[in-house]
Design a protein that fits this description.
mainly alpha; CBS-domain; Tetracycline Repressor, domain 2; metal ion binding; magnesium ion transmembrane transporter activity; metal-binding; CBS domain
Length: 465
């Protein structure tokens, strides 16, 4: 390994700027041979992580130095927006040469980024059998098991001998038709999935034994329409490396590997996080200002409408506020604490729903616990805030209003924040939507009503606070 390769073959936080600087310098001075060696000493994932650090001319030079096999792996590590940007500057022949190096599931993922005309052109260049496998994956919508599955696998008859299975396996590996194969799948005459054999077991067994004698029976499988979030949960619950995909008759269609599920977990977590903030998932460095603004505007508009509703509730207490002006600034404390408590409850419950930890048997306990936690925190925060308010104003009435407002608001925050995601899930709506204006505004309205309502009662009874 030369100096460049030896120094930069691993990507860490420490050498990240050095690698970017080296690659940029080699592009600038056009030392393409050194550039090629430096790039190929990096893992394709590392280059994908560095991709945003290079400008357009540098990117073109980098792509020109990558081998087809390396470029293919690199493309699978990029997000769809980054791939689309690359494809806009390349012809379909260039794209096909790179896709040839990939497995069917990765090819399908990339083809979804292309327009139908380019997709059809590329599919026609594959052989008929391979095209059929890719089309089988493409017919399933994104986010399903069918879209995740790979058609590259080894399926054998239950009557096949270990010797013949090993021979088939060696032939496929020799022609580079299988990657990351963990299991051989066993099927019956109708190609129905009946079991699997770990590859390591093939090596240890006698060559004369048959597949049905050593196979593990089929126990866990999914249909192609199954949601990818459910698929990820199955992988987690059963500690799987590979999951068979079968149709309604049990016919083996393909399998999903754990590396694809890792991507799903990241995608689902990112999606939930962004939805909690009412933000779209597209990459900010790819979107224009107008696109980013348009993606966030609906949530901001809804928030404006709900905040106006909260303000309308406050107008019912104009007379109270005019008598005790100190109540107005304290309302921001009530609203802020209620909003934070709501977000805490929503985040915990949405996460638990995503992990399948909440069901019909324990949902009431989960809600009760969240309400209890918020209430305890409300009592603690309310007491502390009341002491501060009394120390500053020397008016017990205002301090009492502060205490009751915070306790009630945080109680409502725990109740609404925990119940609303569950209700939305029951109506087959996205629970992450609960973290938006719906929950926080409802909490604000209730908190303001209690805070100002208590103040109004005290003023009516005692003539002041």
């Amino acid at each position: 390994m030369n100096t460049v390769e030896r120094k930069y073959h691993l990507l860490t936080k420490a050498n990240y700027p050095q690698i970017v600087s080296l690659v940029s310098k080699l592009c600038r001075v056009r030392r393409f041979e050194l550039l090629k060696r430096a790039l190929h000493s990096l893992h394709p994932t590392s280059l994908a992580l560095l991709w945003d650090s290079f400008d357009e001319p540098e990117r073109e030079m980098i792509l020109g130095q990558l081998s087809s096999e390396y470029a293919a792996e690199f493309l699978t590590e990029l997000g769809s927006d980054e791939r689309e940007a690359i494809f806009r500057s390349k012809d379909t022949a260039w794209i096909f040469d790179r896709l040839e190096e990939l497995e069917t599931d990765d090819i399908a993922v990339i083809l979804r980024d292309l327009n139908p005309r380019d997709t059809n052109f590329i599919l026609r260049r594959f052989d008929k059998n391979y095209t059929g496998k890719i089309k089988e994956i493409l017919k399933y919508p994104e986010g399903t098991a069918g879209a995740l599955m790979s058609s590259d696998f080894l399926a054998v008859s239950r009557h096949a001998t270990i010797k013949s299975i090993v021979s088939q396996f060696q032939k496929l590996v020799k022609h580079d038709q299988l990657e990351d194969l963990q299991f051989t799948f066993v099927v019956d005459r109708g190609n129905k999935f009946v079991g699997y054999i770990p590859i390591r077991k093939l090596i240890l067994e006698k060559s004369s034994r048959k597949a049905q004698e050593i196979m593990q029976p089929a126990q866990v499988m999914v249909g192609p329409e199954q949601d990818q979030e459910t698929v990820a949960k199955i992988f987690k619950d059963y500690n799987l490396l590979s999951l068979p995909v079968v149709d309604s008759r049990g016919v083996l269609l393909g399998h999903i590997t754990v590396d694809d599920v890792v991507d799903v977990l990241e995608e689902e977590a990112t999606e939930d996080m962004l939805r909690l903030g009412g933000v779209t998932q597209d990459a900010p460095h790819v979107q224009s200002l107008a696109q980013m603004a348009r993606g966030r505007l609906p949530w901001l508009t809804i928030n404006l409408a709900t905040q106006v509703l909260s303000a309308w509730i406050v107008t019912f207490f104009d007379e109270t506020l005019s008598k005790v002006i100190l109540l107005a600034p304290l309302m921001t404390v009530i609203g802020g604490q209620g909003g934070n408590a709501t977000m805490q409850a929503v985040t915990v419950v949405v996460r638990s729903l995503a992990l399948g930890q909440i069901n019909g048997k324990n949902v009431s306990k989960v809600i009760a616990k969240e309400v209890g936690v918020s209430s305890l925190n409300g009592f603690a925060i309310g007491t502390f805030a009341a002491i501060l308010v009394y120390s500053y104003t020397q008016r017990a009435g205002i301090a009492f209003c502060m205490f009751t407002g915070l306790v009630s608001n945080m109680f409502i925050a725990g109740l609404v924040g925990s119940m609303l995601p569950v209700v939305l899930r029951a109506f087959r709506l996205d629970p992450a939507l609960a973290a938006g204006p719906i929950a926080t505004t409802f909490t604000d309205m209730c908190g303001f009503s209690v805070f100002l309502g208590v103040a109004t009662l005290l003023i009516g009874k005692f003539g002041g606070l």
